[in-house]
Amino acid sequence: MLTHAAFALAESSLTTLCMLWSTTFVDFIRWIDEEWETLVTAIETDKLPQLPGTEEVYSSVATKFFAVPARAEELRKIGPPSHTAEGWTVKVWPKLELLVAVCSGTFGRVYPQVRAYIGPDIPIRPVVYACTECAIAISYDDRMPNVNQVLTEDYIELLEVTPTNEDGELKHLWQLLVGRLYEPVVTTRSGLWRYRMGDVVEFAGFSPADGSPLLRPRERRNQSLRLPLALISQTNIIDSIAGVGEISQTEFTTWIDDRKVPTVGFLVEPAPGKGNTMMDNLIEGNEMFAMSAKKGQSVKPTIRVLAPGTFGEFRRWKGELSGTGSSQVKLPLIMVDTKGQEFLLLGLSMRFTKHCR
């Protein structure tokens, strides 16, 4: 990604930044900040740094990289991203017109960070809402990056998701109710195979322009944390952070903090201090958790604060292991991979452990 950054920084007339996810963009900016002097020096001297993972392509791309001393001087006057409170990208690329990145569902948590980097006026457009089997929806409106418009030749049905996360009735698109949650079920044109997506989407209504259905991605289905006396769903976790702005507007993941009395553990990069609020919200949203709390068998969620950039390093590490690259790696809302948990805990900078009294 830093090689892409070097070429992008060298080009002052860049108009579009195309990233897969909003988190990819945040990582992109953060790594530019960390390697700022290396990248600017490369633009000044035409010496493209040979970065890990570029061994096979370096000899080919290095010949396309040229020195632009005037551009390097311009970048030094602007400074790295951490020196600008808002709108750094439009200072570096004055002709920037569009950021392409998915900002819906769990990727919406870093939307405030993304908006701070690009400023209030640059539109953010997701390319498509899709799975391996077929495309489902496309971007609806640049002002609503978390809403997608169903516009496809494949056959799409929606399975109702009940408040207890059970399967309801299978609905046609014209039978959907605004505000209800559904799981997309797709039938591909080419093979007439029927696939359950495993996603939860909220029906946002019909487009007033052409009547096409509008979907708002929410979360993955059937992922949960099993405590001794309660099963905590993704919905419970998302609801538990309501009113805790330090977490709800940034990336985080959760795991079973397996101690004498196991509880929900949060791994975050900021430093929130509202364990009581999260505990109260879990009690309100999960009946079994509330019952065990009354018996003194549920404790407040633990909050572990990670070093800045830990989640970006996690994606880089996971991408190297799988051979897919960091931009293909998603940070799950619930971390069940023990090796992933161990990697993140290495980025621990401080620890908050709070128990019910």
Question: How would the blueprint of this fold be written?
Answer:
Layout (H helix, E strand, L loop, with lengths): L1 H9 L5 E6 H13 L1 H10 L12 H4 L7 H10 L9 H5 L5 E5 L8 H8 L5 E2 L2 E3 L4 E7 L2 E7 L4 E7 L5 E5 L9 E7 L6 E3 L2 E8 L6 E8 L3 E4 L2 E4 H7 L4 H4 L3 E6 L5 E6 L6 H11 L1 H8 L7 E5 L3 H13 L15 H8 L2 E5 L5
Parallel strand pairs: 1-2, 2-3, 16-17
Antiparallel strand pairs: 4-5, 5-6, 6-12, 7-8, 7-9, 9-10, 9-11, 11-12, 13-14, 15-16, 17-18
Q: What would you say this structure looks like, in words?
A:
- This protein has 357 residues and is α+β, with helices and mostly antiparallel strands.
- The chain has 3 domains: 2-125, no CATH class; 129-219, no CATH class; 224-352, no CATH class.
- The protein contains 13 helices and 18 strands.
- It has helices at residues 2-10, 22-34, 36-45, 58-61, 69-78, 88-92, 111-118, 234-240, 245-248, 275-285, 287-294, 310-322, 338-345, and strands at 16-21, 98-102, 124-125, 128-130, 135-141, 144-150, 155-161, 167-171, 181-187, 194-196, 199-206, 213-220, 224-227, 230-233, 252-257, 263-268, 302-306, 348-352.
- The strands form 4 sheets. Strands 4, 5, 6, 7, 8, 9, 10, 11 and 12 form a 9-stranded antiparallel beta sheet that branches. Strands 15-16-17-18 form a 4-stranded mixed beta sheet.
- The radius of gyration is 22 Å and the shape is globular.
- It comes from Coniophora puteana (strain RWD-64-598).
- Keywords: Signal.
Main features:
27% strand; 357 residues; 13 helices; 4-stranded mixed beta sheet; 9-stranded antiparallel beta sheet; 18 strands; disordered C terminus; 3 domains; globular; alpha+beta
